[in-house]
């Protein structure tokens, strides 16, 4: 594993977030990040889809009350039960990591930090830059499904930009974050109306070969609950993070409405074009914006708690 403080493109949120690189170095006898790194590699080797799973879990957690692991809480009306979080997974893996960490350094490492460290490791395993992860988060004390207000795939660019702006992300940073859709899948319910003319949401500009392909996956007037398609329609992609996703959008081969509109809306199309042409730019901005996402409204110091079990408050 490379140095936690190295990296030519790293920048710090410490001044605004209170997070630091290497927070646990003098707090645990064991190397917390190394333990998580090893377990992530084992999981990724067995199931590479843990990468998009953790990316989604991280994003959905951070956009509701900040990155405080509130999405992990079990209960009849917690964030986990929200319709927006219906397809989120990775909870068991985070609990597995927590159990391993507790056996080596009990009561010290937050579930919120475990999510952040694991996501960072998986990004590296999926072809992204190995950026130093900032730590020192505390776990939240609130988790209500009614508080979940996430950008949805049917939004316009303007509508989504307003949601991201509320979390202090620019349009360009939104385009970068949505580029993490280079990996993962979406169920038919999130895009099938774009496939048929009588739905009011038909996309007449969609690439014809993709349209015909998706109609087979999501036939109209049929139960497609369990049917899904890859978010990144690049046939050469193998669950890796790369900028060819943006090229697919430019070619009208986007699966989700919001993703596709990024390449058509004047407010975002220039960013899509730039990222599609420059893999280094994509890698650098992807790391920088993830560092920023992982610092959204974090709890530090004496705020919140350090949960003993990630799925319930102490």
TrEMBL record:
Does this UniProt record's set of keywords contain Membrane?
Answer: no
Binding, Ca(2+) 2: 234
The family this protein is said to belong to: Belongs to the peroxidase family. Classical plant (class III) peroxidase subfamily.
Cite the Plant heme peroxidase family profile domain residue spans from the record.
18-314
How the cofactor binds, per note? Answer: Binds 2 calcium ions per subunit. Binds 1 heme b (iron(II)-protoporphyrin IX) group per subunit.
Which GO CC annotations does the UniProt entry carry? extracellular region
Q: Where is this site: Transition state stabilizer?
A: 56
Subcellular compartments: Secreted
UniProt cross-references to InterPro entries, sorted A to Z: Haem_peroxidase, Haem_peroxidase_sf, Peroxidase_pln, Secretory_peroxidase
Q: What is its EC number?
A: 1.11.1.7
**What name does this protein carry?**
Peroxidase
Q: Which cofactor does it need?
A: Ca(2+); heme b
Give the binding site residues for substrate. 151
């Amino acid at each position: 594993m490379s140095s936690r403080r190295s990296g030519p493109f790293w920048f710090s949120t410490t001044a605004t977030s209170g997070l630091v690189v290497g927070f646990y170095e003098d707090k645990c006898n064991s190397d917390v990040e190394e333990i998580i790194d090893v377990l992530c590699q084992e999981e990724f080797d067995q199931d590479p889809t843990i990468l998009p799973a953790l990316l989604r879990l991280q994003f959905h957690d951070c956009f509701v009350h900040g990155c405080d692991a509130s999405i992990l809480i079990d209960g009849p009306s917690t964030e986990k039960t929200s319709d927006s979080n219906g397809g989120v997974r990775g909870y068991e893996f985070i609990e597995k990591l927590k159990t391993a960490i507790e056996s080596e350094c009990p009561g010290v490492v937050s579930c919120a930090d475990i999510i952040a460290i694991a996501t960072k490791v998986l990004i590296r395993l999926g072809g992204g830059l190995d950026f130093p992860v900032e730590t020192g988060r505390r776990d939240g004390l609130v988790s209500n499904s009614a508080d979940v207000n996430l950008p949805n795939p049917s939004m316009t660019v303007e509508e989504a930009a307003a949601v991201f702006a509320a979390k202090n992300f620019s349009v360009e940073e939104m385009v970068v974050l949505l580029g993490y859709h280079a990996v993962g899948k979406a169920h038919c319910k999130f895009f099938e109306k774009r496939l048929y003319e009588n739905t009011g949401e038909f996309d007449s500009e969609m690439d014809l070969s993709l349209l015909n392909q998706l109609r087979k996956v999501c036939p109209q007037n049929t139960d497609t609950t369990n049917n899904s398609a890859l978010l990144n329609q690049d046939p050469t992609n193998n669950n890796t993070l790369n900028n060819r996703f943006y090229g697919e959008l430019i070619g009208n081969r986007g699966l989700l409405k919001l993703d596709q509109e990024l390449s058509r809306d004047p407010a975002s199309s220039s960013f899509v074009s730039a990222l599609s042409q420059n893999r280094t730019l994509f890698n650098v901005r992807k790391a920088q914006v993830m560092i920023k996402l992982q610092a959204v409204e974090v709890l530090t110091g004496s705020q919140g708690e350090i949960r003993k079990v990630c799925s319930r408050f102490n």
